[in-house]
Each structure stands twice: as structure tokens, then as C-alpha cells.
Automatic annotation (TrEMBL), chain A:
Subunit structure: Component of the CENPA-NAC complex, at least composed of CENPA, CENPC, CENPH, CENPM, CENPN, CENPT and CENPU. The CENPA-NAC complex interacts with the CENPA-CAD complex, composed of CENPI, CENPK, CENPL, CENPO, CENPP, CENPQ, CENPR and CENPS.
Record function comment: Component of the CENPA-NAC (nucleosome-associated) complex, a complex that plays a central role in assembly of kinetochore proteins, mitotic progression and chromosome segregation. The CENPA-NAC complex recruits the CENPA-CAD (nucleosome distal) complex and may be involved in incorporation of newly synthesized CENPA into centromeres.
Localization (cell): Chromosome, Centromere, Kinetochore; Cytoplasm; Nucleus
Keywords for the protein's UniProt record, in alphabetical order: Centromere, Chromosome, Cytoplasm, Kinetochore, Nucleus
Segments crossing the lipid bilayer: none
Domain of life: Eukaryota
The name this protein goes by in its record: Centromere protein M
Organism phylogeny: Eukaryota, Metazoa, Chordata, Craniata, Vertebrata
Automatic annotation (TrEMBL), chain B:
Source organism of the structure: Bos taurus (Bovine)
InterPro entries documented for this protein: CENP-NAC/CAD_complex (IPR052011), Chl4/mis15/CENP-N (IPR007902)
Transmembrane regions: none
Protein name: Centromere protein N
Annotated GO CC locations: chromosome, centromeric region; nucleus
Any Gene Ontology biological process: chromosome segregation
Entry's family note: Belongs to the CENP-N/CHL4 family.
Tree of life domain: Eukaryota
Keywords noted in UniProt: Centromere, Chromosome, Nucleus
Cellular localization per UniProt: Chromosome, Centromere; Nucleus
Gene designation per UniProt: CENPN
Amino acid sequence: MPAVVPSLVGTEDALLQQLADSMLKADCTSELKVHLARSLPLPCSVNRPRIDLIVFVVNLHSKLSLQSVEESLCHLDAAFFLGKVAFLATGAGRDSHCSIHRNTVVKLAHTYRSPLLFCDLEIEDFRAAMAQRLVRLLQICAGHVPGVSALNLLSLMRGSENPSLEDL
Amino acid sequence: MDETLAEFFRRTILKIPMTEMMTILKTWNFLSENQLQTVNFRQRKESIVQDLVLLCEENHASLNDAAHLDIIYTQFHRHQKIWDVFQMSKAPVSFRDAEENSVWIRIAWGTQYKKPNQYKPAYVVYYSQTPYAFTSSSRLKSNLPLLGQALTVASKHHQIVKMDLRSRYLDSLKAIVFKQYNQSFETHNCTTSLQEGSLGLDINMDSRIIHENKVEKERVQRVTQEIFGDYPQPRLEFAQYKLETKFKSDLNGGILAEREEPLRCLVKFSSPHLLEALKSLAPAGIADAPLSPLLTCIPNKGKNYFKIRDK
């Protein structure tokens, strides 16, 4: 089977690096190759494999990280939004350091019809748990789990995790 | 020896950490080798200090000797004071860089009616052959003009100006005003952390992780290096920007648009090591490179207090 390829997109290299390391340590029956990018579009490359899942990492402590993600989203092909995009917000645990309101990312994820996950990536155990979750998500998006597709998963996740703002 | 003087000696010696005691006493060179050998340094500190004070009495120590000891202590603990920088002008100046040609002055302030307060002295460090003096912030602000005058006269200058530069780290202030900070050192923690990428983490050479945007990363490293150089930055704890400008708005007729009076606001950046922190912002992805020149000009301009007004 070909490798499963997630792309982690975010401005803070250290966080992406740590998350990538955790994902490589997680249980994964397929071969894993993690791409780290600061922003989109990615530089032109002939050899890039198909990307199975894009995770946009927003640090709630940094307005720059949100701004960069918002700009990157414009460059993404619409097809990805059918279940192959997820948002990950980090830093919610340290409320006094947050310069972005939680609702801002909730709204962003809602606009792009994609799931939003919260995780304080600086804490190793939380990061490991999130990494495992992302790997499962990734395997489904890559089509390596029979019977479940990215789109199925998206509609399943939307029900419980992302009530529409009108319902709130 | 008079009681107040003995007490002053006791308190001054008590301040000295035991690990530095011998070094400082030897530098002071007031008590002889033989005398120091008679002291049992294994006692409780209070007892050691008592013995030392008795020895000082034996030697008929004066206030001057106590002040001398206090200066030495301050030299060892210069970081406990916050230093202002003064620049004098119109003097025959020949620079002597990298030479410790410094004079440490200790001033205990008194008035006509009060004896000088030995417990709240001001310190001045003057580098002869240069127009610069550094003073520890005195609580008695009214003495400052007097001090300025005295310095100017003593050093045969014409005028003294307080620079917008202040820090705890005397050696860094020196490096900034004498422009000695941009010398590369062979190996230093700071350069390796820039190479290892953001926040000093080891770059995982795992081939299963692919870094896109390598070009952008390299650009950021290059720009940062051009601006901050390869060398360790001088150490400052803060930079302060006072803004006094009129409100400018894109929208026509906002509430503040008609306002004639300038808006005032103060922004202060604090850090245990401000310039190193600024240097690591862009590589860490927390800010875009290049940083604002208002931040990067600090060592160059020798300022960490800025006033920004409408032109």
C-alpha cells in the first residue's frame, strides 16, 4: 500500500515538528510520511505524493498563525474540503496568553465545513493522544480503512463536535 | 570604633555570599593573610562576620575602608543595580576600547543637616578617555543634576546628556555604547540555536518528515542573520516605546478622526534577554522577517527608550 501522507500547515515550526514526531510514534498500520509547511501554496514540486489530510495548526497565542492559515486556505483546492481538511487549535489551556478568541476558530472551521480539534500541543501526553487520533483520521482519509470514507467521517464528526453556530 | 561604623561593616560583610567571601576580602586587601587565617570559616556566618568586624576594629578601619569594600561588593554584583548611561561632549576624546580603564565612584548623599546615608549610595562608573559614564539609579532624583555637573567638571567636558538607554547589565551597556558587541565569538550557544531552528529544538533528521518551504526558512534565517549577526546580543531587559500621534483612520469620519489632541500610548517589551528573544521571533515563526526597524535598531542607536511623534 502506498504511504499515507498528512500535511501539517502552521507558522510555528517547533509545534509542527513535535506533532510530526508524535504522529510517527503513534500506531499506524501504513507507512507514514509527514509534510510540514509554513503556509500554502506549497512550492512547486514534481515529486510530491498525493496528500491525504491537511491539518491547519493555529496557535491561539499568535494572531500571525491565524492570519497565515486564513491566507493559506484561499490556495487550497476545493476538493480537499470534502473531509480531508482539519483544524487544530493549540494554546487554549493558557487562557491569559490567548490573543485569539475560541469562537474565531470555531467560526473559521464552520465556514470551511471542516472539523476543529483542540489540543495543547506543548503537553506531551495530550499531543500523543491527538497524534494517534490524527493518524486514525489520516488512514480513513487515505482510504486505508475499508467501509469508511473521508466524507462519511466528516458527516459523522460534524454531528457531535461542530454544532452549527445557529444552534449555539 | 564607633558603633554605627561597626554596624555598617557588619552589614556590608554579611551581604557577601560565603562562596565569594575570600575572593572579596582578598581583593579588598585590608585584612592581612595572617589575620584572615585566625578566623574559623567553618562557624555560622554571623560568627564569622563578628570575627571579621573585630579584625577591622583592630586595624582601625575607617569609613573610607568600608566604602571601598562596598564598591568591591557592587563590582561583583553589578547586576543588582539598574544603570543609566550619560554621554558627555566637547572633549578631547581618544577611544581606548577593550581596556578596563574604568573608575568606580561611590557617592553617599547627605545634606547640610543630615549625615551622608551610607546605605543608599549611588555608583558611577566612568571610563576615562571616553565621554561615557554609567550611574546606578539613585532614589534621590534631585541629586542627579549635581552629579551630572560634578562629572562634567571632573572629566573636563562641557556638557552632559542622559541617554535613552538603561539596563541592569553594565557590561552590555558598555558593549553597546562602545560598539563592541559585533564581534564574532568562536563557539557560542546562541549561534548553534539559530542553526538548530526555532526554539533550540533539534531538527529531527527523520526522513519520514519532509519540510516544505525550505526556501522561505532559509530566507528567514538569512535575513535574521543579516540584521542580528552571528554574535551574542548585548543583554537588555526591556524596550519602551512612547507613542504620541494623532489618530489616522481609513474610514471617513470615525469618532476619533476629528480629534486634534494626539493619542498617547506606551508599549513596553520585557524579557530576561530582550535582543536574543527578538532575534528568535522570526525563526520560531512568531513574527515575519524582517522585524520592524524600531526593534532592530536598539543596539545600533544605543537606545531602549523611544518617543514616537508625528513628524
